[in-house]
Amino acid sequence: RLRHLERILENSTQWLLKLESYIQSSVKPEMAELRQTAVQNQTATMLEIGSSLLNRSAEQSRKLTDVEAQVLNQTWRIEMQLQENSLSTSKLEKQLLLQTNEIHKLQNRNNILEVRVLEMETKQQAELAGAHSEKEKLQRLLSRQSGTIEEMEKTLLAASANTSLLQRQQLQLLQSVQSLPSGDGTERKEIICQHKGIQREREEQKNQAGLQGHQDFCLFTVPSAEVRRAGIHASGIYTLHIANLSEPKKAYCDMETDRGGWTIIQLRANGSLSFQRSWREYKQGFGDASGEYWLGNEAVHLLTSRVPYALRVELQDWEGGQVYAHYRKFQLGSERQFYRLSLQDYSGTAGQQSGLALQGTQFSTRDADNDNCLCKCAQMLSGGWWFDACGLSNLNGIYYPARNNIRKLNGIRWHHFQGPSYSLRGTRMMIRPSSF
């Protein structure tokens, strides 16, 4: 544009010079001066226009330089972004290669696993065929054993016909016991030995009948109440031979409290024995009848499932207070029923209402949670008991000594006697037939 303007100025100047020479040659001197003045004015005007054009061209040149600088900056930024994009693209390509390699590895592993699965399927099919054959063998064996059992049942019926003689001997023995004086301990021992002799005779009958090891053969049972009826008045440790129980149980018999005849099934006195036991231990029983012990849930179930039994619970605090709870009907369900508790007709001094457990409560231990609480009461409160929803009592809790027995929710507690967090000094649970 500047060059174009310069050319225009040069043309204008040449034109003015020509015009001036023409005026000088053709116009009169008077007019020449006027024309010269006009030309000068036009020249000045043209010069002003040229200067303004030069200023505008300078401004436009500055703007162009600014625009060029901005374009250069944007171009540099775009180039940097392109470099960054190229780097990220290379990284993505590397990652894509790594992922494709991993996919190939996974495909190889999947192929190996498929081969193994096929091998396992073939093995399982072979094992299933073997199991079917074993099942057929077992069915044939079962059919043979069922025939043997039928023969054994016939033999049992023949052997049971001989029990009448033993029953007569038992009645004669009980009559002889009643006629004996109560103070002779030697004679009592002989009577107990005679009871055992009768049991040995029955065991011999079982051996002769080929039924050794069968628990459904009725053995002679001597609970504490029967000993008391036989005229033995001394409290002490006696051997209980309970039907369907694999071995005899030793238990302490109380012959004095409320006319006697009580079999102690639980005793807490000094904390010498831990009651933090498993389901199996509570089932079979633990401890020693000469001290603290638990007779066993299975033994109590077998005793209370044949005839109606009563339960007496005795409680003692650290201040010398003693109370009791009496239930005229008491029964424990089987292990399949989780030794479900059945109680009726409460009376006694251990509260205005029963504090043992609700009717139908199941037994729980640390490894067998059968309560109605999400908190697992046997683990939280310790011991094994009929907790229900952690309940009003737990006589198998931790034994706390004096001055350390307050505010102990996991101790030996009975809610209606000394409150829910007072750990008692001693407890006894005892049973006898309701008809005693």
Automatic annotation (TrEMBL):
Transmembrane segments: none annotated. The keyword Disulfide bond applies. Keywords: Angiogenesis, Coiled coil, Disulfide bond, Glycoprotein, Secreted, Signal. Residues 89-155 form a coiled coil. It is found in: Secreted. Gene3D superfamilies: Gamma Fibrinogen, chain A, domain 1. GO terms for cellular component: extracellular region. It holds the Pfam family Fibrinogen_C. GO terms for biological process: angiogenesis; blood coagulation. Residues 209-435 form the Fibrinogen C-terminal domain. The keyword Metal-binding does not apply. NCBIfam families: GGGWT_bact (NF040941). PANTHER family: FIBRINOGEN ALPHA CHAIN (PTHR47221). This is Angiopoietin-4-like. It comes from Cyanistes caeruleus (Eurasian blue tit).
